[in-house]
């Protein structure tokens, strides 16, 4: 089962590449704000909130509407960075949505996609991303070769890297890389089940050397307080905000958890 979901996600990226989804002809500027600096100095919970209209686990989350308007509501609530899905298959994302948000706001943006090719990294640079996502298990399971090569290529393009892990072993492997930020996904990509204890288990005994982001399954202020105690420095939150009738209010409540 495990590799099937990952393989499916990787195949979806290949299909999007073949369809020319990442052939963008723009040159947008990235933000001049440093997300890691924000994490270090923010007295409240640092949220990386996610604009996504669908997902493999939930199907459709929200009707497609103007992503720039959603971005502004998230920022008004206190979100300090945004993650925007650019993967069309299963996530209803696109580089166009990303560009709309980039032209509307000046905070750090993560291009959220299943990165399997440098074409996607080139696109990230062109559309003004600050961060790209790499998934450790795609490399550990042999779907992709050299992770260092991807990280170095991203850095050469002026991008920072969020490297996502789910297990202690993946985390140990991730720490050997030059990734700027490590994300712990509380969702098991094999089963799509969520367990917030994942962050606690992965971080046990970790002497902090770089910022840690906890991702998935975060819905209420208590979740943030618990994950902070476990050692998370920032929080990636998507579905619970995108499902909300009051995006700004929901974000504010989570930001004020700390």
| Series of H and E elements | HHEEEHEHEHEHHEHEHEHEHH
**Proportion of strand residues:** 15-25%
DSSP E strands, number: 10
Give the C-alpha Rg. 17 Å
Identify the CATH homologous superfamily: Aldolase class I
Oligomer: single chain
Residue-averaged pLDDT: 93
Number of domains: 1
Physical arrangement of strands within the biggest beta sheet: 1-4-5-6-7-8-9-10
Low-confidence stretches: none
CATH class: Alpha Beta
Overall description:
This protein has helices at 2-18, 35-41, 67-76, 95-104, 118-126, 136-140, 147-156, 168-175, 197-203, 221-230, 239-242, 247-255; strands spanning 46-51, 54-55, 59-60, 81-85, 109-112, 131-135, 160-165, 181-185, 212-215, 234-237. With 258 residues, it is of the alpha/beta class. The strands form two sheets. It has an eight-stranded parallel β-barrel with strand order 1-4-5-6-7-8-9-10, surrounded by eight helices. Strands 2-3 form a two-stranded antiparallel ribbon. The protein is globular.
List keywords for this structure.
258 residues; eight-stranded parallel β-barrel; TIM Barrel; 10 strands; 12 helices; two-stranded antiparallel ribbon; alpha/beta
